[in-house]
Model the fold of this input.
Amino acid sequence: MKTLTGFALALLPLSAWAASTEFQDIERGRYISVLGDCAACHTVDDDQPLAGGVPLETPFGTLIAPNITPDAATGLGRWNFEDFKAAMTEGVGRGGYHLYPAMPYPSYTLMEERDIRDLWAYLQTVTPVENDVDANQLPFPFSVRQVMLGWNLLNFDGRRFEPDPEQSDEINRGAYLVESLGHCGTCHTPRNFMGGEGGDKFSGASIEGWYAPNITPNRHVGIGNWSEEELVEYLQTGGNRYAFASGPMADEVHHSSQHWTEDDLYAVARYLLSGAGVDAADWDREPPEPLAEDNAQVRAGSHIYFDRCSGCHTPNGGGEPGIFPQLASNALLNSANTDSLIRVVLAGSRPVATDAKPTAPAMPAFAWNLSDDDVANVLTFVRNSWGNAAPAVSASEVADMRETLESE
Amino acid sequence: MSNKQDAAPSGGLTRRELLGSSAALLIGASAPGAAQALTFRDTPEWKPLANVAVEPVDENAGWQFFTEEEAATVEAIVERLIPADALSMSGKEAGCTVFIDRQLAGAYGDSERLYMHGPFQEGTPEQGDQSPLTPQQRYRIGLSALDDHCRNEHGAAFAELADEQRDQVLTQLEENEIALGDIDSQVFFEIVLQNTMEGFFADPLYGGNRDMVSWKMLGFPGARYDYRDYVERHNEDLGLEPVSIGGRPDWQAQG
Done:
């Protein structure tokens, strides 16, 4: 796509190009769609972009992302700009029905008018695909869209983005990207019982059997240890020395952030690492003390680590840059939620492959080789070694994840 | 082979045999379901939980191939091929018979993965084993013939003989001094000796090498992956406890 557009640009005579604001708007809209990661939910088949059909598992039931190509019968062909704007900013579809917030309109509502307009211009240029999607698969009473009226009252404020005059343009650009188009909080902020963003902002949350980690500047459980360069490297290439994007984040990097401009990625990194968007009282906490070396789980885990993990992650947890993440002083290991850690040890993982790093490294599965106790002990060891400190992992947590994985 | 014109120089194939087997190959190649090469495109597929693990042998599951009598004879053999001494327990205690039994019950036992059709020729030593007998057949025939021999010559089954007598019989087998009827005694001895060593030194996961006894004896560190931190260290005890595919005792949380 990228190359094609560049090629098309090169073909246009300079005068025509300068005059063609329409083309620029559409191209800008295409980039907005990348920033917003529309494809994550609306594209199943790369040959039929935005034709819908990705099932979204929510705690309330399954929703299927609709067809947003300009097809008249099954897409947005009969919508006008005002309809589209209402969907993006108010969560209301053409004819007045309520959208479910799996569509992140609580984030998109912050979008600037021009961005919505350009995005709409771009969507008009997508090839129409006839694909009738029955979006609402929720069970009663959630299937009644009117319930969203009450939900919106409690969870949705419909405000627009306001730049902070105290902050630099770059930080404000980062804030806009993170809070609005990037809708990072959709996964990284805990949700209340209604599925609205509820707990401490960006403090991490469960999503599709993975843990979307804490992205506050906390050094122990957040990304405060990461440099701006490391955060940009992660979003652009799929990994850095601490982590490789896996699970739902792999999709995000694949469809979206690897294609962001470097300026935008640095703006995001500065905003997130500055802590400008979060209340320090919510994240600035003292780390706990690690468990003692003679703790029975830690000791057993140290032997398992040496025999099974140290070959790649190295005996002192240092890892190998570019291929084996370092485990030492790695905040991802310290989170209270252990879903991703247990999942990756049991099932292995193939993180995202990007244009920058086309060969995705992989972690092998250990479910066949390590018992529930073994996994609990080795994770307890790495969570309490080399600068890490976190509560012990129990065998029953591992057993639960094993059951989840086997049923997937 | 009665037709004189077809007689080939000793040891070679007749022209008719050669043509016949080539035709069979051609038919085999074009038949549906013939083996096909795997083709990979892009990156190889990756699936969560995927592995190529073998199920650990359950040593309490009873004999899978041997009869009780055969098992007793094999126990009596492996106990003498690897006797208990100052260095280690015996091959019997280490589980060599369990290892051999499970191997014979699996793909190895019926030569599932070998070409086992004629013509069977004696072959040169360089050509290796040319016997038409599968390992299962070698044990079944050989063990029965061995007991027959012992009853005739020594008045008791092999397992009931004294240690010295068993050593003597095994030496005679090795030297081809005993005729076992339907199987060459040296061929029989060699397969038992080889499988016993395999059972003693293979990963305990496969039923032998109990508690990694042979690895401890040798100082072999087991199923490990990376030695970069040790490769420069010479002539010292590295203190590496052997580890099996299934782990080692230190993996259990103590206290």
Chain B touches chain A through 23 residues (CB under 8 Å).
